[in-house]
Amino acid sequence: MLVNFWRLIKNLKFLQLALYIIFAFFFLPSFGNRWLLELASGFLLLNVLLVSLSTVGAVRWRWLFWLLFAAAAICHGIYLTQIGPEGRLLFIRLTIICNMLLLLLCIGGILSYIFQTIKVTLDTLFAAVVAYLIIACTFTHAYLLLCTFNPQSLSIPLPLRMDSFNIFESNIIYYSLIVITTVGMGDILPLTPMARILTVVEAVVGQFFVAILMAWLVGRFIAQAISAEKLESQD
Organism's domain of life (predicted)? Predict the structure, then answer.
């Protein structure tokens, strides 16, 4: 029974990751305890890393994943210590850059897994959902990095402060999800040319992802189901 349960979890690894990312996007920003939020965010990144590594066939590339994860953890740990404002700003930038590079590698690994999959399963579809959400998370980091250089890049109704960075980040997460889904609420606006370029790129990537990749995978999934039913009816 335990073996069958482990196989089920392993086969649905992208489902649990998709659910956790959705939970993180919608509920983590409301956590009042800062250290609980830090712990949950760290587990989210570790979850993304482990699931992505399970899709990477080449062992020689795995050290790069772990190196970026360790570098991000070290920089974030230094940021959390009581150092000067300039030092905290430097290390939060380094943390964001390392996380962005790691997320890009994870996206590449997941997309490679999707394109190499012969049979499209339910977990393959959730792998695409995870890649879509990680893309939104990557753009979130890009906006955050941009705001550390120019806090007026986005019309967020609160100042960027190192002691309340998580609150500022939750607004960026909301903005990134609004952009990638092209909902366009209009309560947060890009104010600088670079912010507008990132916004347009994310909106285009999000639409192409859903219109092309997701549609292609769903089409293959339905076609395989129809073929299986025909084979069963012939038997």
Answer: Bacteria
Helices 34-53 and 85-116, packing angle to 10 deg: 30
Paired tokens of 191: 């104010």
Domain residues of the chain, as ranges? 2-234
Long-range contacts (CB closer than 8 Å, 24 or more residues apart) made by 158-164: 162/79, 162/85, 162/88, 162/89, 162/92
Helix (H) / strand (E) element for 123: namely: helix 122-149
- Predicted confidence at residue 138, as pLDDT, reads 94
3-state secondary structure at position 90: helix
| First-to-final CA distance of the chain | 31
pTM: 0.86
| pLDDT computed for residue 44 by the predictor | 85
